[in-house]
User: Fold Cysteine desulfurase from Kocuria coralli.
Amino acid sequence: MDAPLVYLDSGATSQRPESVIEAEGQFLRNSYAAVHRGAHTLAVEATDAFEEARRTVADFVGADEREIVWTSNATEAINLLTYAFSNATAGSNGSGPGSQRFRLAEGDEVLVTESEHHANLVPWQELCARTGATLRWIPVDDDGLLRLDALGDLLNERTKVLAFTHVSNVTGAVNDVATLVAAAKSAGALTVLDACQSVPHLPVDFHALGVDFAAFSGHKMLGPTGIGALYGRAELLNSLPTFLTGGSMITSVTMERTEYLPAPARFEAGTQRISQAVALAEAVRFLKDLGMDRVAAWEAELGQRLARGVAQIPGVRLVGPRPGQERVGLASVVVEGVHAHDVGQLLDVAGVAVRVGHHCAQPLHRRLGITATTRASAYVYNTTADVDRFLEELSGVRAYFRAED
Assistant:
């Protein structure tokens, strides 16, 4: 590649600071061992580092350390949750006191939104198929924004779960969590927040938001792949049935029956993501040193620069909030007469890395009448010059493909 790289694909996965890479390497070189199993010095050091990472990440998202369950990613976290609901319905031996609130049956409803990433849609579809519950969804308007005016007709005494994204990975819109949580509580429904696009970019406090469960991934917040987390209120996690079972999450086992540890250990069977957790904690420290208020403010500025710039390019449609409306540092666009994959390829030749396709949100794209979009997503390492470079290259796409009027 001759042109300097402008990386605008952090919505998919973020680049890692040297300190994060080094923290994982140092742990692997000096302290690596199985956790929660050995009594030797190295095992104790590894366990201490592993649990300190949990405390660091929990504090970052406004949670207690007992409320953070390590998973491979947010997708696994949401699947863990939906399969635990299934196990509650089936009367699993791993159910805790109060697990009946997770049981679903015909006549019950799960409410999602039309803007969900497949990771927060497909698992709920499958749960409804397994239990006989009905899946319903909050529609979006022509800009892809949630129609909260429809909430009153959709949320009722039959609604058991309201699952929704905090920030859309397609539109960059920040959803009104307070309104959605209040509505769910009034109906007695549990709330599940997809926080993949908010925890890396905004100050997030799960206790203050009042959500019951949340999921996020390490690789979108300067951390490694292979690590994510499920947040759950402590009393709910301890009532939730187990999902994966095996070693490290039990108190006693006989040939007839098993007793399980309290959360989070009850959901962490087998050998864990040890070095990844250590690296994620270092990523969190990096973000805390920057200050999440500053991160959010900078990315909001980049998001508005993207929105304003796109709106000025003839034949290019901005998806999501209009310029001046709240958005994170992300913008998805449609170029008239040019497929998103061709747009992305031309930008790539120019050294600008963006995302193309439906971004694992096919229903949202279908609702907006488009097959695919080109998405530029900025992060803490991006500059106004990066945004301007994207806009400059984008402005020449239609002429290159002779798609101008």
